[in-house]
């Protein structure tokens, strides 16, 4: 089975990328699953999409944890841990980055053993063409698998974008062809991962859910599912900060109201906010009786952190 993830920002066409690649696989005779995972519904917010393709029925579901290929449309996402670009990358995973930096630079930065490729953007895109980046990434990914022809990619682009004006479709086909050609030297570099079946899964007879002592009454319901894997911290534009001089350490109020279970009982009984998962809804700010949680702009909080680290 091929497992491929696309990472980019809202407006870059990551959903389109997964649709085009999925359809191209389908044209080649594969069973396909493609899905998108949105963060904040706004332009520029991180988004990822994924494609599974296999010759038999696909029983896997959910986010791809062990990808064979990761395509990054915006290289500024790589160092942002909450974007999850590096999640599950193993020695056989191919990392394709749309970047002006060289492969050597990325290898030194990331210290990865597996193949790293850069997709230089040869066709200059107008700002209004940002959505075409998805087409470019899909075509490059198709080429790297070595089992999808350019004809199938072109057909997939035409099929998926059929609702657009003819000129726009033609431009996308042109961009796809260019990206496919630029990756030709690496065709087949992506190795197909093994297939898993639901029969391979062992159902645990007992599941331990973490819980605080009852006397502390602080819920810590980090129980599984996919919520832990999806780092919603990147959605945040405002950050909740606890003012310990006002906090009376009741904890259960802010912790109970947090919709993401991002508040746990920390040291000395003060609430501890998990910034990887706090999405910045500010419900805790509104609910705290003594107004001990303040909302400050995320950029300001980051600047303060840097200042603190430097001093
Ligand atoms: S921040 Fe507010 S709600 Fe949370 S523990 Fe402190 S006083 Fe209670
Ligand atoms: S801002 Fe929202 S998500 Fe973050 S800790 Fe407060 S209630 Fe939870």
What's the topology here?
Blueprint (H helix, E strand, L loop, with lengths): L1 E8 L4 H14 L3 E8 L7 E9 L14 E4 L21 E4 L5 H8 L5 E3 L14 H13 L4 H11 L5 H17 L55 E5 L9 H6 L5 E3 L5 E3 L9 H5 L5 E5 H13 L1
Parallel strand pairs: 1-4, 4-5, 5-6
Antiparallel strand pairs: 1-3, 2-3, 7-10, 8-9
Bound molecules: iron/sulfur cluster (2 copies).
Poorly predicted tracts of residues = none
Mean pLDDT: 85
Name the bound molecules. iron/sulfur cluster
Distance between the first and last residues' Cα: 50 Å
Largest sheet: 6 strands, mixed
Radius of gyration: 22 Å
What count of domains describes the coordinates? 2
Give me the strand/helix succession. Answer: EHEEEEHEHHHEHEEHEH
Globular, elongated, flat, extended or rod-shaped: what is the shape? globular
Describe the structure.
The strands form three sheets. The chain has a six-stranded mixed sheet, with helices on both faces. Strands 7-10 form a two-stranded antiparallel ribbon. Strands 8-9 form a two-stranded antiparallel sheet. 28% of the residues lie in helices and 17% in strands. The chain has eight helices and ten strands. The chain is of the alpha/beta class and 311 residues long. It has two domains: 2-197, Pyruvate-ferredoxin Oxidoreductase, domain 3; 214-310, Alpha-Beta Plaits. The longest helix is centred in the middle third of the chain and has 17 residues, at 166-182. The model has no long low-confidence stretch (mean pLDDT 85). The radius of gyration is 22 Å and the shape is globular. Helix 1 (14-27) crosses helix 4. The relative contact order is 0.13. The structure holds iron/sulfur cluster (SF4) (2 copies).
């Amino acid at each position: 089975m091929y497992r491929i993830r696309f990472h980019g920002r809202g407006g870059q066409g990551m959903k389109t990328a997964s649709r085009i690649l999925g359809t191209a696989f389908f044209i080649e005779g594969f069973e396909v699953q493609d899905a998108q995972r949105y963060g904040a519904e706004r332009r520029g917010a991180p988004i990822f999409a994924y494609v599974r393709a296999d010759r038999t029925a696909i029983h896997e579901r959910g986010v791809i944890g062990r990808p064979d290929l990761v395509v990054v449309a915006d290289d500024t996402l790589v160092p942002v841990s909450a974007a999850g670009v590096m999640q599950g990358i193993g020695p056989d995973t191919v990392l394709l980055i749309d970047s002006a930096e060289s492969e050597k630079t990325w290898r030194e930065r990331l210290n990865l053993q597996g193949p790293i490729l850069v997709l230089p953007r040869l066709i200059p895109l107008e700002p209004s063409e940002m959505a075409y980046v998805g087409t470019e990434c899909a075509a490059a990914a198709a080429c790297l698998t070595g089992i999808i022809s350019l004809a199938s990619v072109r057909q997939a682009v035409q099929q998926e974008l059929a609702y657009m004006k003819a000129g726009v479709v033609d431009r996308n086909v042109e961009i796809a062809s260019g990206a496919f050609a630029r990756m030709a030297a690496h065709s087949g570099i992506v190795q197909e991962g093994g297939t898993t079946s639901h029969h391979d899964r062992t159902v645990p007879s007992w599941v331990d859910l973490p819980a605080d002592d009852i006397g502390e009454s602080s819920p810590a319901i980090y129980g599984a599912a996919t919520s832990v894997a999806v780092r919603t911290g990147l959605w945040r534009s405002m950050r909740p900060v606890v003012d310990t001089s006002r906090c009376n350490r009741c904890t259960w109020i802010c912790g109970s109201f947090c919709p993401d279970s991002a508040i746990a009982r920390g040291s000395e009984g003060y609430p501890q906010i998990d910034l990887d998962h706090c999405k910045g809804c500010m419900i805790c700010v509104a609910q705290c009786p003594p107004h001990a949680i303040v909302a400050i702009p995320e950029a300001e909080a980051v600047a303060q952190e840097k200042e603190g680290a430097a001093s």
